[in-house]
Queue: 2 jobs
Job 1
Amino acid sequence: MTAIQLLKKSPASARVGMIIIVFNLLVMMLAPVIAPYPETEVVGDVWVNSSAENLLGTDQLGRDMLTRLVYGARNTITIALFITLISFTVGATCGFLAATLKGWTDQVISRMVDIIMAFPTLIFALMVLSVLGTSIPVLIVVIAILDSTRVYRLARAVAMDIEVMDFIEVARLRGEKLWWIMRREILPNAMPPLIAEFGLRFCFVFLFISALSFLGLGIQPPTADWGSMVRENAGAITFGILTPLYPAAAIAVLTIGVNLVVDWFLHQSSQLRSH
Amino acid sequence: MKTNTSIILRRLGLGVVTLLVISILIFVGVEALPGDLAEAVLGQSATPETVEAFRKELKLDLPPHVRYFSWLGSFLRGDFGTSLANGRPIADLIGWRFSNTLFLAGITALISIPFAVGLGILAALYRNTLFDRSISIGTLSAISFPEFFVAYILIAIFSVQLTMFPSMSNIGPQMTLLQKIHAVALPCLTLTLVVMAHMMRMTRAAIINVLTSPFIEMARLKGLSWRRVILHHAFPNALSPIINVVVLNLAYLVVGVVVVEVVFVYPGLGQLLVDSVAKRDIPVVQASGLIFAFTYVFLNLTADILSTLSNPRLRNPK
Amino acid sequence: MSVLKTLEELFVKGAISRREFISRTAALGLLAAVSPSLLPGPAGAETPQKGGRLRLGVSGGSTTDSLDPAAITDIMMQLLIYGQLGNSLVEIDHENKPVPELAESWEASPDAKEWTFRLRKGVEFHNGKTMDADDVIFSINHHRGEESKSAAKAIVKAITDVRKDDKNTVTFILEDGNADFPYIMSDYHLCIMPAGGDVQAGIFTGAYALKDFEPGVRAFAVRNPNFFKPDRGHFDEVETIAISDVNARTNALKTGQIDVMNRCERKTVHLLERTPNLQILRQDGFKHYTFAMQCDMKPYENNDVRLALKYAIDREQMVKTILRGYGTVGNDHPVSSANRFYAKDLPQRQYDPDKAKFHLKKSGLKDAKFRLHTAEAAFVGAVDAGVLYREQASKAGIDIEVVREPNDGYWSNVWLKKEWCAVFWGGRVTEDMMLSTAYAAGAPWNDTSWNNKRFNELLVSARAELDEAKRRNMYAEMQQLIRDDGGVVVPMFAADLAAATDKLGHGPLAVNWELDGFRGPERWWFKS
């Protein structure tokens, strides 16, 4: 089945998901063209209601909300994508290795992961980020490492179940190399739960960045990012001001979009293998 | 069965080693943070002379390894020590806060786990129907909102508008169980919304994954109903990833809820850890950090044992 | 008259706030026609009522708090120890004047080096002991000496000796003359405790006696029946609850779970003000926010650079945006209009991009990037203020890079260390305390490393000067020196904002500390 045929057969929900993703990607790439104002310019009073000049009103400093959202898409999605990709590559590889090799490899990696996971995240983040600083590459690596421990546990658990299957034994007897087994036998069979996890992890990154800004760590101002935008405007919701809902909704819509597509993949992969 | 016992014993031993390593890491970590207790407690009133006197009295001027081993020595004898900042016994500080933390985590787990797993099974059963999609979208939106924001929205609705539940959950020893449950309703609801989606989606994905296995096809060919196939054949075989994600979320409910504690003024252990890290009160950080680490190691071990037991092929390794 | 009727109806229904009602009727010139029951009585004329439980929700509580007055560093303990449980020798009234508290009267030697305090007789501690000179000496010595780890160590350093003249008279001997010594004795650390007692016991002389205390969570105190001020301490019980999240405080107040909250969120206080049955307690005091440049570090050793940055900030917009109007503009010196010797004739510095450009050019600095270190921990809104400053300075061609530092460790890691950073100053009741703390050469908290010979001489001579008129001139000159030569940008003075149920009664609010000089629990009451 070619990609186009697949797309044609895709259910409406998956199409909605894809439209959302493509829309976000377009906004990301065209940010300077779409945004009505420069990223950091103060254009009006604080928390102005939506008007012709400011379609979504203004934020806590009087910057145009729509502009901040558009630039926020650009900054946040790129970072989230990097983090998730790194954490999945690292986490899944280590998890598969541990499950197939067992013994010492498994013990060493698992105990290290145990230590990182059992270590209070707050102290970990504080330690690393206040020693190494909060430049964006450091931020990406730190969050990716923290995230990869979660991926590792899942990947290892799933791979353990697959590893005892007969077809792995057959492959082993055939004399296949470790790498081949991991890539051709374990990965495809472990894909569905991993992809489901991917959809969620991707959106957790936004929330993690927002939690870091709670500690004064995270992305440097005045760069716009959705997580911090929710945080900075959150107090207004108690008084019925909708401003903080916009960035939160942006995260929610993207999350739903990504997961609609993920669901379709899940469905697709289970059908493909059963036929 | 003998091998199982020895595996568990070995894991327990490793758990102890993990905790020891973590205690060293916490110590080194807090030491490495800029500033010390004297400066942090005095804040803007920290003149050099005052800081000097402070350090001397609390023995902060001793080399770090001496302080670590003297702490470890008394810790192993069961003496948690006293807080450097206010001289109170750490056991007093931690005891009731930890039981509060467990109370909130327990109630939330009681509600969210059956609910999430049940919804996950239903979603797998009726997958790709409107029902599946709406709970999927509902739970996804709930987790896309940062938890403090979910909390603010719930407060705005349930305590400011409807005045059903209090916005502050400062529970005390004089309250009855029912009063306590009423007081923690909103933090509990917030946390339920936060952890549900993850568990629910993983349950659904794990079951759908198992559905492609040959034995399910066999069961289907035998003419069993979907309901029976999923509940009796698919679900038991999908348990391993489900247990893992449930345990992860349980650990989160104990260890990671400091933001919810702050928003609802709930006297839990997270707040204590944050305060003592900010003040560099190392014995308190150590004690609360280790309780968190222990909770995690313990839950993790439980998860591993349960997944081993749930997978017949893992149960009897060749 | 129909306009007035409408307004009255709106107000009675709760659709507009009391403040709004009064200001709108006043604007129409109709105030005299309003039915008297709708207006608050003239300030101070209301008779305080006894009774009730006051529930305070305050920030600044920590699980590391202790009842030792030497360890007070934040609002929860200030409000508990100084505001409810204890008293010091001198009290500061709402006009910022020292008035007798545990001391009945005091006098200075002509050189202001020896101060004799006569103690009030018959004051009882919560444990029943009667207060005398030994207790005062014990309490002050608790903060003095090599071994002291008191937060007030620097404040009492100038005391070289304490002498007991008789059972009820104590004399303090100072290193150098200090005309403001009574102000020092009003400090919240210097609460009087029984001699030889446990400093952590919470035993003092105050309006309320401690019943229960859980650090960082809650404190509970009940009225002291033997309190020595007959006209104070009106509540039966006072409950102090630590609520560190400002939104949690706001919600607790809105839902009636607490009666008073401190430190309202400035972003939303104008919305809170419109809520029925609530009142905003505003105090324009000494609190100010600064951007401190280290005058011994590049490029800030050049006064033209400093002036360029001072002209590049729009103070009006800062007050409007960061303080939401709840504050006043600063004039690049730390003396507030609430201080006694505020130089009101000193011209206000204005936002002037052209002058900023001129000074930058004169300094010879090209393509400079100024790194401004900031964090929410510096003051609420500090990061936003930095970003706003950056936008304003860019209009003068000045490039500011805002660096957000971690909240954790800001005061030990960034403040006094980085070349330019955002700073919070609670301010001081006297000019001398403020200037000696942060602007005298060599002072440990001189966060601008400023060293001006004329200023340093003036500071010492003004301190011992008992002639008010001469002193006023000296302080005026010092304010001008800081403004034109100092390393500090002072964009704004922030008002203290608390909110309370409108059932709470109070007189004119003191400005020395927030919540009526921390003394709300002692001074306020519930209206019947």
Note: The two ends of chain A are 13 Å apart (CA to CA).
Job 2
Amino acid sequence: MSSPMTPGITAGRLPADTLAENFEDLHAPYAPHEAAVAADRCYFCYDAPCVTACPTDIDIPLFIRQISTGTPEAAAKTIFDQNILGGMCARVCPTEDLCEQACVRELAEGKPVEIGRLQRHATDTLMARQNHPYERAPATGKKVAIVGAGPAGLACAHRLAMYGHDVTIYDAEEKAGGLNEFGIAAYKTTDNFAAREVDWLLGIGGITIKTGMRLGDNLSLDDLTGCFPAVFLSIGLGGVNALRSEGEDKDGVRDAVEFIAALRQASDLASIPVGRDVVVIGGGMTAVDAAVQSKLLGAQNVTIAYRRGREAMSASEFEQDLAASKGVRLMFNVQPKAIHGDSTVNEIELEYTSDDGDGLKGTGETIRLPASQVFKAIGQALETESNLKLEGRKIAVTGAGRTSRDGVWAGGDCASGGDDLTVTAVAEGRDAAEDIHAALSA
Amino acid sequence: MADLTTDFLGIKSPNPFWLASAPPTDKEYNVRRAFEAGWGGVVWKTLGAEGPPVVNVNGPRYGAIYGADRRLLGLNNIELITDRPLETNLEEIARVKADYPDRAMIVSIMVPCEEEAWKAILPRVAETGADGIELNFGCPHGMSERGMGSAVGQVPEYIEMVTRWCKQYYDKPVIVKLTPNITDVRKPATAAKNGGADAVSLINTINSITSVNLDTMSPEPSIDGKGSHGGYCGPAVKPIAMSMVSEIARNPDTHGLPISGIGGITTWRDAAEFISLGCGNVQVCTAAMTYGFKIVQEMCSGLSQWMDEKGYTSVEEVVGRAVPNVTDWQYLNLNYIAKAHINQDDCIKCGRCYAACEDTSHQAIAMSDDRTFSVIDEECVACNLCVDVCPVEDCITMVEMEPGQIDPRTGKVVEKEYANWTTHPNNPGAVAAE
């Protein structure tokens, strides 16, 4: 039996019951009374700021009023009308940066209405009660291909299916869901929710999912555009940025997304190996998810090393506090300089940084931390043979996801604009579907 | 600390807070707890005539109306008068009064409208040593079907007659409790006064159905699928009660008649308002039934603090202070002009003032792209709706315009002189100002 003190990288550092407890729902679902009390706090604002802050424009005051009047099912319909993945968004949205930040009670009292948890209460209630709340329009016979079964692709597919179009989704993995299934911390989506949500969404009918199909591998855009009058690309960012530090190739240095995916797919958390001293390089949600889960798996010391200051961190304040509360150490203004060890990492050397106005620079001063495992979480990159016009390192889109190529739309993380959030991906998928529908109906 | 001692009809109590005749005052056990908690007096739950006591339903007696956070705003009940034997109640009243001589002990009575019935019970009550009686002419449910309670209170002649009997057969103060289920409360109050009543107390509860069960289609509280109207009380009835109290206080026929105020009193502030409208003391029920007897501590400390701040040294000094300011609409000053003002520092940008004004009023609030809400003086009629719907107290206020300023809405100069409808040129019945 291993323990947090066991050197190196090993599985089973904590007993099964501790692991189960550690990976419970981050926010337990509301009991009906809690939901009633929380819903009562909503002021039903005019042209509410929370709605403006929501990338999918959910009518939040309306759905909260529907909860408070005893009709959480109607509330869920209000949510799903705008955001068919409202269940997942209720769990993973950084609400503290979106709707809840805009809530007037945040301004008034520093305590916003708990919109995310109320949304979960509504969506869970409806999803538990009936198979699928929407009916498909009569079949149009029009076919659309979607590449990538993540949030953008699923949202797009559902909206198109509702209009009666036939949708085929191709996905490189063996399982649909994209980052919802592979890229989010386990404690944010317990009980196999991502997979259950996909099954529920497919209840609309008219959507076929083909897995193991990767663009540029066994699938080509030219073939797709030849067969389908409309193609929606929601392929995410498949590549992982490199550290470009000496020793990056040593054993024990790994992509954080891979670790998170393995953890999500594990049937037994005790089977996931984790280091005694874990260092995560990065400052986003992925870094926090990897760090916190390392700690929850039993790593003795976990450090997030971020090259800029706290204020520049893209992980929200809530995420930072979550990490700190789980015992993760947050280091700022440090960047990896070298990874030391023989064939396997045992130490990481970080260089302090400063920014005097003309870019981030190393100061020359370094610090070494013991490290049996290093996770890279410094961002993902677009990985495709695409002959589409790019903007920066993403597929350039205009309007509702139109790419440089006729008949090809794109949305989600692979497309320009947006915040690389589940909720923005849903909005982009939905809006592209509307545009595709308009184009197909023309 | 201001002295809260009150002398109501010669009955002294350490504070003006009495528990009204109701479930909380049905038994020695409860009343002792109330006195230990600090209540100044109680009106014992209504006694009926000698003989087999009334029976109550064996299902729900109360229905409710809620505000946000499930705060009880209104309660109704279908409970009858005491369902315990008369003798038991009388013994308990005597014991408790003997142990708490400094507290007011009033006995509520409801017997049939027959002189013999009153003549029989009054000496029994007198023997308890209680300080006075209250005639229950108010209960709107159950007993009224038997010709008692509000059935008496709705007929001024009966009120006068029964009051007269009571004054004849009982030598301590007689308080007549009035029902609000009438058209003009001045009539029963006048009748009580003519009958010799020492005081009136009001209001009793209001005919009400609080809700309908949409599964069973039965009114609540539901007894085996049927419901009956109950008596409504609690914070929701306070405005109705205060209006009725003020009418009695300002009516020349009843002005000066002592009043014990009842109706939704929940805090010291509610009590102070009733007292300012002419009540010599107040009676409380629903607040105690909602939160327990301890609330009297806040009532005493709050009233005392406010009196200290205002320089009042006795409750007596506050009684009726607001009465001269209760007037008829026709005498309101039409030259008084105000405009709403939104304090931007306090505004939380919810926009409820905008929705209310834009959708349902005068389109007098502007909303900017950055959600700054401001009053359009050219449109504002100072209706106060924005103030009433704003979640932040004092964020929106009504600011009086100074004489000589021009009202941007009408383009007219604000006049200094008082002028009301009776002299207004639009009034066909206007009389020339003298």
Note: The longest helix of chain A spans residues 422-441.
